[in-house]
Specification:
Layout: H1 2-12, E1 20-22, E2 31-33, H2 35-52, H3 54-57, E3 64-67, E4 72-75, E5 80-89, E6 97-105, E7 111-116, E8 119-121, E9 123-126, E10 134-141, E11 149-159, E12 165-173, E13 181-184, E14 189-192, E15 198-206, E16 212-219, E17 226-230, E18 238-239, E19 241-244, E20 249-257, E21 265-275, E22 282-290, E23 300-304, E24 308-311, E25 316-325, E26 331-339, E27 344-348, E28 353-357, E29 362-371, E30 378-387, E31 396-402, H4 406-430
Parallel strand pairs: 4-12, 14-22, 24-31
Antiparallel strand pairs: 1-2, 3-5, 5-10, 6-9, 6-11, 7-8, 7-10, 11-12, 13-15, 15-20, 16-19, 16-21, 17-18, 17-20, 21-22, 23-25, 25-29, 26-28, 26-30, 27-29, 30-31
């Protein structure tokens, strides 16, 4: 009875049916494992397998390393911002590998991508055994209407093995920072008398990949002075804005007139080119020296488009000569006087005089320079002078080098030979009669 009781307890009792059961009729007392025990063993095996598998390890390591030191920059609306990164294999590979470069979140209307050697890329290749560092650039093109504030760009580096690496880059849009343009002058300082005016040449260079339109403004102009912007040096077109294409430059002029009877001294003012989508542009300082004791011979100047040239015998070239009144009074009856050496001739192919030149005005004439066919080789000098009723300029000197080319000599010899042969043919044909 006790055995039967214990057997019943074993079969149905305190150990529970879910773990094991002793089946009657088996004299050896073999225990058959129940379904729950089998399930428990399978789950344990699966846990062990996952704990040692590469997928489990991938949460702790990556097969690539991404190195960068700068994660945030300030930019002007429309600027292109670049971040430098370096990628390298995380270990010495025994097989070739790769890494995918992904931009998965960025502001709407922005253009973001990875670049290497000027080309946009999406993947990098790592050769087996190569641990070389690979430089990569993250390039972010901001729209020219971007509002001020901080903007985040999120990227992911997804290797063929191991976990992905994530990075966040921040671009701060600030309209008070300097735009990506250049503003300069080849003559930022000039000397005049107080009753005259002067013209500065200036250039605006657009370094963006899109067209810009800039407002032209002035600051700190001395009291009583006037500063105006012109498209042409003669003041034909007054400027308020200048539009420049991507990667191009725009030239213009500033006409400056001092206050009447301004005292001698050094005066400065600032011109500024401000893109329409910004609050602050690029400044450029100009200097004007007022000297009321300028000598009269300096108020009429003459300059040629070139100061030296080369000609072959019989060849002709055209140059331009510009006369400018840099004084403070109008000059009357201006003429050009040209002194030509032997072997050269000069001809004005336009009017060689003008009735008057007001202060700051200029006049340009075209001059044909011809080397005579019999001119000998050597360097000669042409002297050009401008003369008015009131004063005259200093001489402008233009060097002309005459060179007899081998080609022209061969042509001359050929012509002589041809003439001799022709005369011989005539004599042979008609002389015998």
């Amino acid at each position: 009875m006790l055995y039967q009781k214990n057997e019943s307890m074993i079969r149905e009792g305190i150990y529970g049916r879910s773990f094991f059961r002793l089946y009657p009729g088996t004299s050896s007392g073999v225990v058959r494992i129940g379904k729950s025990v089998v399930s428990l063993i399978l789950l344990s095996m699966l846990f062990v397998f996952l704990s040692i598998s590469p997928a489990g390890a991938s949460s702790d390591w990556s097969s690539v390393a991404v190195i960068n030191t700068i994660t945030g920059k300030t930019a002007y609306p429309g600027d292109t911002v670049e971040f430098s990164l370096t990628l390298e294999s995380g270990y010495e590979r025994t097989e070739d590998g790769w890494c995918s470069l992904q931009v998965y979140d960025f502001p709407e209307g922005w253009d973001v991508g990875f670049y290497k050697d000027g080309s946009r890329i999406t993947n990098l290749y790592f050769a087996a055994g190569n641990t070389e560092k690979i430089p990569v650039t993250l390039r972010i093109k901001t729209p020219d209407d971007a509002q001020e504030g901080d903007y985040a760009v999120y990227v992911r580096f997804r290797p063929d093995e191991g976990r992905s690496i994530y990075r966040e880059f921040v671009v701060n849009i600030d309209r008070k920072t300097e735009p990506n343009i250049e503003f300069f002058s080849d003559t930022p300082g000039l000397e005049i008398s107080s009753s005259g005016d002067v013209r500065f040449h200036a250039t605006l260079k657009n370094k963006y990949e899109h067209r810009i339109t800039a407002d032209l403004e002035t600051e700190n102009v001395p009291a009583g002075w006037t500063v105006e912007f012109f498209y042409e040096s003669d003041g034909s077109y007054r400027l308020k804005k200048l539009s420049v294409g991507p990667g191009e430059s725009g030239d213009f002029y500033l006409k400056v007139r001092p206050a009447l009877n301004e005292t001698n001294g050094v005066y400065t003012f600032t011109a500024r080119a401000v893109p329409e989508n910004g609050d602050r542009g690029i400044p450029l300082n100009f200097t004007v020296i007022v000297n009321n004791e300028l000598e009269d011979e300096n108020i009429l100047s003459v300059s040629g488009s070139v100061n030296r040239m080369e000609l072959n015998p019989g060849e002709s070239k055209t140059i331009s000569v510009t006369v400018r009144n840099t004084g403070d009074k109008t000059l009357q009856n201006i003429n050009l006087r040209i002194q030509s050496p032997s072997g050269l001739t000069t001809d004005l192919n336009s009017f060689g005089n003008t009735k008057e030149l007001r202060p700051g005005e200029s006049w340009t004439a075209a001059v044909d320079v011809t080397a005579r066919a019999d001119a000998g080789s050597g360097t000669k000098e042409i002297l050009i002078r401008a003369v008015s009723d009131e004063t005259q300029s200093q001489d402008e000197r233009i060097e002309v080098t005459i060179e007899k080319s081998e080609r022209s000599g061969l042509i001359g010899i050929g012509l002589i030979v041809a003439a001799v042969l022709f005369m011989g043919l005539i004599f042979f044909k008609f002389g015998r009669r």
